[in-house]
Write a structure and sequence with these properties.
With 209 residues, the protein is an all-alpha fold. It is built from ten helices and two strands, in the order H-H-H-E-H-H-H-H-H-H-E-H. It is globular.
């Protein structure tokens, strides 16, 4: 986030869906990607290229930032692959809590070299923003776990396209100095469309009310 833009990040972190399509058959022996999945991956790849090519104002180091965002989404997909076998023996709340706890410890130890610089820049505003973000994450995960307990996950996945859509809208409204360029607008539309395609329940999925 410090080297690129919130707009670009909101779009590219959604690429975890594409990583999942590619990696899940290799590690979890799930069904191979369908023609619809490959079409979505191709559409998303074109969208990423356009978004990186002309992202707009306040985009910073676009290539480096884009690469980091894609690697972050890859890490998220690998995390899901690791957690998938565990979810069969532990409930969703425990799995979510464990992943957040151990992931937080990893980030904490990684950030130790910058602890002194962080302490010098610590302010009331930073503390409040950190607490707000923690509360938002906790509430969001709690709602998701509740929905996942009530409804099939495949049905909920159909709404994942809202994540990059809401992220880009919020970044445009609340982050000063950022404005979407033509490449980001067109590429973002393609990425959101691709996420919608892969998130839609397949014809073989059946849901109970």
């Amino acid at each position: 986030m410090s080297i690129s833009s919130g707009l670009l990040g909101a779009l590219l972190v959604s690429c975890g869906s594409f990583w999942w399509i590619l990696l899940a058959p290799l590690f979890l022996k799930t069904p191979s990607a369908t023609a619809r999945d490959w079409m979505a991956i191709a559409l998303g790849s074109i969208g990423v290229s356009l978004a990186v090519y002309a992202p707009g104002a306040g985009s910073g180091k676009v290539l480096l930032g884009g690469l980091c965002f894609l690697l972050a989404s890859l890490s998220g997909a690998l995390g899901l692959i690791i957690m998938k076998p565990l979810s069969e023996s532990i409930d969703a709340k425990t799995a979510t809590g464990a992943s957040l706890f151990f992931g937080g410890l990893l980030l904490l130890f990684t950030g130790i070299p910058a602890a002194s610089a962080f302490s010098r820049s610590l302010s009331t505003e930073i503390v409040l923003v950190t607490l707000a973000l923690a509360a938002i994450s906790a509430i969001a995960f709690s709602i998701w776990n509740r929905l996942a307990h009530t409804y099939p996950v495949a049905l909920l996945a159909g709404y994942r396209f809202l994540i990059p859509l809401c992220g880009t809208l919020q970044a445009s409204l609340f982050i000063a100095g950022e404005a979407p360029g033509p490449g980001l607008i067109l590429g973002g539309s393609l990425i959101i469309a691709a996420v919608y395609i892969v998130s839609r329940p397949k014809e073989t999925d059946h849901f109970e009310e």
